[in-house]
Design brief:
Layout: E1 5-10, H1 19-28, E2 32-37, H2 47-54, H3 73-79, E3 82-88, H4 90-98, H5 104-110, E4 116-120, H6 124-128, H7 130-141, E5 145-146, E6 150-153, E7 159-163, H8 167-180, E8 188-193, E9 198-201, E10 204-206, H9 213-224, E11 228-233, E12 245-249, H10 253-263, E13 269-272, E14 279-281, E15 300-302, H11 306-313, E16 319-326, H12 330-340, E17 345-350, E18 362-363, E19 365-369, E20 374-376, E21 380-381, H13 382-396
Parallel strand pairs: 1-2, 1-3, 3-4, 4-5, 8-11, 8-13, 11-12, 13-16, 16-17
Antiparallel strand pairs: 6-7, 9-10, 14-15, 17-19, 18-21, 19-20
Helix pairs in contact: 1-2, 1-8, 3-5, 4-7, 9-13
The structure holds cytidine-5'-triphosphate (CTP).
Length: 398
């Protein structure tokens, strides 16, 4: 972090007191720190503390009433390498999302030239309120990187998500930001994610429990490294917005195949994490199937192998990554898929490992590559698994 210029924006929430620790970590690591406080945050943290620790005067008002000096928000924007707003309260979030400009922090945000990162902090109900979600989506869509709030005990006594990420996490996020922000600029990566739903009739389908979390975590990680991402996702509750992202939402394996066919030839690499249904009903009833007989037999036919198709069309320069979810003989099956589908490497997750696979926030993977290297990783969050997979991919994407 030596010499990096960090502008910290502090808005008025109880988590403001934790920023003291972040400032100390940043200064210790050699970064330069300037801080802007909203007037409301001064009730939670003293400007003198912030100024002393950051070794710089703090900005609060547009102008200093004691001597009439003007605080130039444009200069802050030009000075900073990154602008981190932490804690980000619901009120400041609302104003960021809608162009509010009634304090120095907001004016600086509007004239910012460098990337902006935010760390929301609010009470459980406020954090999950649809308005908050909408506002977070709006700013994410404007290119702001959101460090999600953590779960735990909140100042109100409630327990749940809403707590600002710890200062150490914020510090690591800043470090990662500087390490990563340009590594994959100019690359275009295609990702498949989530389940597919295969219709039986207008109201029913055959599907699976895939949440799409792995594919979305991969997309987030890759976007952070500056690449363009085409994310083709089956039905999930997840959403992601970013200027470099094309999100294509599909239902069935056939829809997913068509979307992949449209984008694969323009991609430098593909990561196929979708849990595609292997079979679909041969006939889709036009009207809702009514119950009549005791037994109902549904004839299924095989779905197209989307990854197999991409492997068969792969050029020498393209890198292709598949996933394998196995219950037994993981490595042998993975080896077979690696060659059969013409992959560069395959990510194996075994349902024998507790905490891995569908629905969990964690995953435990091994990677088998086309040079016969087999690497096993620890159980960790899907965000960290994504990091390992993308690091592996980087070696191929020179
Ligand atoms: N895949 C795909 N299209 C399919 C099926 C799978 O793109 N119709 C991709 C998945 O996204 C994953 C990999 O292929 O990357 C999984 O390979 P697959 O052979 O389908 O494994 P399983 O679904 O586990 O099937 P099985 O073990 O029954 O062969």
């Amino acid at each position: 972090m030596q010499g990096k210029r960090i502008l910290l924006g502090i808005s008025g929430g109880i988590a403001a007191y934790k920023i003291v620790t972040l400032i100390r970590l940043l200064i210790k690591s050699g970064a330069e720190v300037k801080c802007i406080l909203t007037p409301a945050s001064c009730d939670f943290i003293s400007p003198l503390t912030v100024a002393t620790l950051s070794k710089n005067p703090v900005g609060i008002e547009f102008w200093d009433k004691s001597d009439g000096t003007w605080s130039n928000h444009v200069e802050y924007g030009l000075w900073a390498d990154v602008f981190l707003i932490a804690p980000l309260t619901a009120n400041t979030l609302h104003k960021l999302a809608h162009g509010g400009c009634n304090n120095l922090l907001l004016a600086t945000y509007l004239s910012m030239k460098c990337p902006v990162i935010v760390a929301p902090a609010m009470d459980l109900d406020m954090y999950i309120h649809p308005t908050t979600k909408r506002n977070l989506e709006i700013i994410a869509g404007d290119g702001v990187l959101v460090i999600p709030a953590e779960s735990g005990e909140l100042a109100s006594g409630l327990i749940g998500q809403g707590r600002m990420a710890e200062p150490e996490t914020l510090f690591e996020s800043l470090e990662a930001f500087f390490e990563n922000s340009s590594e994959l600029v100019g690359k275009r990566i295609l990702i498949t994610a989530g389940p597919t739903y295969e219709a039986l009739d207008p109201v029913r389908f055959i599907g699976n429990h895939s949440s799409g979390k792995m594919g979305f975590a991969l997309a987030e990680n890759i976007l952070r490294k500056g690449a363009e991402v085409v994310l083709i996702s089956g039905p999930t509750k997840l959403d992601l917005k970013h200027n470099n992202l094309t999100l294509v939402k599909v239902q069935s394996a056939e829809n997913m195949l068509h979307a992949v066919q449209e984008h694969w030839s323009n991609s430098d690499a593909g990561i196929f994490s979708a849990a595609v249904a292997d079979y679909r009903p041969l006939n889709v009833a036009e009207q809702k199937i009514k119950k009549s007989e005791e037994n109902l037999t549904i004839e299924l036919i095989k779905n197209p192998d989307i990854l197999g198709w991409a492997g068969s069309m792969k050029s020498e320069k393209q890198i292709l990554v598949g996933f394998a979810l196995e219950t037994t003989n993981g490595k042998a099956y993975a080896e077979d898929k690696l060659t059969r589908k013409n992959l560069d490497f395959i990510v194996l997750n075994s349902l024998e490992d507790h905490g891995a696979g569908f629905g969990f926030d964690t995953n435990k993977i091994s990677i088998l590559d086309n040079h016969n290297n087999f690497t096993s990783f620890e159980l960790m969050s899907k965000a960290n698994v994504a990091k390992d997979i993308v690091n592996y991919l980087k070696k191929y994407l020179k």
